[in-house]
Specification:
alpha/beta; seven-stranded mixed β-sheet; binds S-adenosylmethionine
Length: about 270
């Protein structure tokens, strides 16, 4: 398949890093997420994931945090078949195809217009799937989404690209738009932000990072009183660690003893409102 995608800005290009993470996880001997579609998209684009020089650890992190966000969304739509689901900064992720929500759920993938155009070229359409092309810092994009249904909102790899003010304002718009719901995203501690800026595998996004990060998972409750922390998921303590390659497994199991150390890696933060 020969595909010519729209020209992407550097921030939009960051989607290749996570897409490649999932594709490389799929190609690994013991996949954590097993996302065949990510691999198919990479192959259709002839995209060379080797350019990121990703080692096992970031590949597994990308795959595992996607899996945890999938689980939050899946549980929510199972309990609320009338829900709307939002994937903020969806990139070329095909979360909806991993979850397969009930047909009564309306699923919204939201990203810049160029990315949504690319999604239309690469990802099969579904009757209950909608792409919204917008800058998420523009408050008007929510006008396109129903207001009267419970919502599950996930954001994978997005928040590092937003200033803290933009993130707070986005959360405020979301929680006032829907009657109730849940929101989950991979958290970036201050250390994690420092690491993204300095780690070799994330050099392609280092200069694009705007978030300072935050260490206390309860901090968003102070920004927005309607948010209540459901769970801070420390990836080091998840059962999938047993599937990690030996050296990484041992290191991760060691880090799991300390919440502070675990927060230096990837966390998934899950709130209700
Ligand atoms: C690291 S990628 C993650 C993509 C996808 N969630 C995934 O896991 O593959 C970050 C995504 O956030 C999008 N993004 C960043 N800032 C945005 C903004 N202000 N408005 C809309 N999308 C944004 C980028 O275009 C990109 O697709």
């Amino acid at each position: 398949m020969d595909i010519t995608l729209p020209a992407f800005t550097p921030v939009q290009e960051s989607l290749y890093l996570t897409l490649c993470g999932r594709a490389l996880d799929y190609r690994s001997p013991r996949p954590i997420l097993g996302d065949a579609m990510a691999d198919e998209i990479v192959r259709n684009l002839h995209y060379d994931c080797a350019r990121f020089r990703l080692s096992a650890s970031p590949i597994i992190n990308i795959a595992l945090r996607a899996k945890k966000l999938d689980e939050v969304a899946l549980r929510f739509v199972a309990r609320h078949p009338e829900a709307v689901a939002l994937d903020l900064g969806a990139g070329l992720d095909t979360r909806m195809f991993r979850i397969i929500p009930p047909p009564t759920v309306d699923w919204y993938d939201i990203d810049f217009p160029e990315v949504i155009t690319a999604r239309r070229q690469l990802i099969p359409d579904r009757a209950n799937a909608h792409g919204v092309g917008t800058d998420l810092t523009d408050p008007d994009w929510l006008d396109a989404i129903p207001t009267d249904r419970p919502a599950v909102i996930v954001a994978d790899g997005l928040l590092a690209f937003l200033t803290q003010e933009d993130m707070i304002s986005l959360l405020n718009h979301l929680t006032s738009h829907f009657p109730s719901g849940e929101v989950a995203f991979n958290g970036y501690t201050r250390f994690a932000i420092w690491a993204v800026k300095h780690y070799r595998g994330t050099q392609s996004v280092a200069d694009l990072i705007k978030s300072p990060g935050f260490d206390d998972p309860r901090e968003p409750e102070c920004w927005n009183p309607s948010l209540e922390l459901v769970e801070e998921i420390l990836l080091t303590r998840e059962p999938e660690v047993a599937e990690f390659p030996l050296a990484l497994r041992l290191l991760t199991q060691l880090a799991a003893h300390s919440a502070a150390l675990s927060r230096r890696g990837t966390t998934v933060l899950h709130y209700r409102f």
